[in-house]
Amino acid sequence: MSNVVLRDVKKTYPGGVDAIKGINLEVGDGQFCVLVGPSGCGKSTLLRMVAGLETITDGEIDIGGRVVNEIEPADRDIAMVFQNYALYPHMSVYNNMAYGLRNRGTPKPEIDTRVREAAQILEITPLLDRKPRQLSGGQRQRVAMGRAIVRQPKVFLFDEPLSNLDAKLRVAMRVEIRKLQRRLRTTSIYVTHDQMEAMTLADILVVMNGGQVEQIGKPLDIYKKPATTFVASFIGAPPMNLLSVAANGLGEPLDTLQIKVPGDAILGIRPEDFVLAGTAPQGLALELMVDAIERVGAETYVYGTRPRADGGLTVSAKPGELPPGEIIVRLPGEAAPAIGERIKVSAARDKLHLFSPGGRSRMAG
């Protein structure tokens, strides 16, 4: 068993800075857990606490049924992969991968077997005699992963391992990491600020903000049912449109929305849930002035502004989420309008997300 359990884990730095504000999390045996959030949200700090590289102010960290709060990193049975590879430049690939095993007194024949098996899995056998300076970024990252694999740990910890790679190589490497984890079935915790990386890798996704968890769940569940406006705007590219809605009267039905809004609220619509007017069931209809267009192959992102309030509603973009009045619509490539054109778009009722003024999700009724 190699599950990881965090019980009300906290981290407070001198001066009273609360970096981690009491996190509870369980990563099951063999699961791939991704911690995602903006810079400074505490995700790397939390990972380092699991690794033993940061002390815990309060709470418990349990790895494989053993509380490891007071256990040194080397004795926690974890292996960590960093974004800067951390390879010894004077050593060959083989010796970089074997170094940790030698320090633990592993017999030489076993070291050789483990290194060559890991090299075969990662397809770096021809590189074993090379030095890190002779390798590309992707090859160095494979070596860093190989060094972790040979340890045969209970848990893999990844701290933004793909950040230094170019966009195309990042896509290829994240596919390789997922295939590797599924093959080895080793419990893994992975930190990234890239929501696309998080969505494609995770069995369980943890969205963090300000030292605490905003939402935990399966990636698609979080995408379809965000618990807060922060999650709604952070997960998804482009982000969800968030509109402040002021009701005409407390609890009065709003015909243009066809839902009841008990007072002020925030309405969320994903860009892909808009269609050109006349092709969607009744829901929310908007008129937009097209300000900008991004063509990305089979899809086009249309950036538009609402010239006026519709149907007794006061609708404007939520400050801090989108520029005032701006709406993003994703359309098929061939449906792209012209800049300066006025278009009508609509979203079906079941595609609308409703949040309280404080940003928490609530059901539309």
CATH H-level superfamily of the largest domain: P-loop containing nucleotide triphosphate hydrolases
- Name the strands of the widest sheet in spatial order: 6-7-8-3-9-10
Question: How would a textbook summarize the main sheet?
Answer: 6 strands, mixed
Strand content: 25-35%
Strand-pairing-aware structural class: alpha+beta
Shape: globular
Give the distance, in angstroms, between the N- and C-terminal Cα atoms: 44 Å
- Helix segment tally: 8
Low-confidence stretches: 248-255, 309-324
Strand element count:
22
Assigned CATH architecture of the largest domain:
3-Layer(aba) Sandwich
Mean pLDDT: 85
Count of all domains: 2
Which fold name is given in CATH as the topology of the largest domain?
Answer: Rossmann fold
The CATH class of the largest domain, by name, is Alpha Beta
The helicity comes to 10-25%
What string, H for helix and E for strand, traces the elements in order?
EEEHEEEHHHEHEHEEHHEEEEEEEEEEEE
Radius of gyration: 24 Å
Explain this structure.
This protein has 365 residues and is an alpha+beta fold. α2 (93-103) runs parallel beside α4 and α3 (108-122) crosses α4. The protein folds into two domains: 4-224, Rossmann fold (3-Layer(aba) Sandwich), CATH 3.40.50.300; 239-362, Nucleic acid-binding proteins (OB fold (Dihydrolipoamide Acetyltransferase, E2P)), CATH 2.40.50.140. It is globular and about 70 Å long. The protein has helices at 43-51, 93-103, 108-122, 137-149, 167-184, 195-201, 219-224, 229-234; strands at 4-13, 17-27, 32-36, 58-63, 66-67, 78-82, 155-159, 187-192, 204-209, 212-217, 241-246, 253-254, 259-260, 265-269, 274-276, 283-296, 299-305, 314-317, 326-332, 342-348, 353-355, 361-362. The longest helix is centred in the middle third of the chain and has 18 residues, at 167-184. The chain contains eight helices and 22 strands. Residues 248-255 and 309-324 have low confidence and may be disordered.
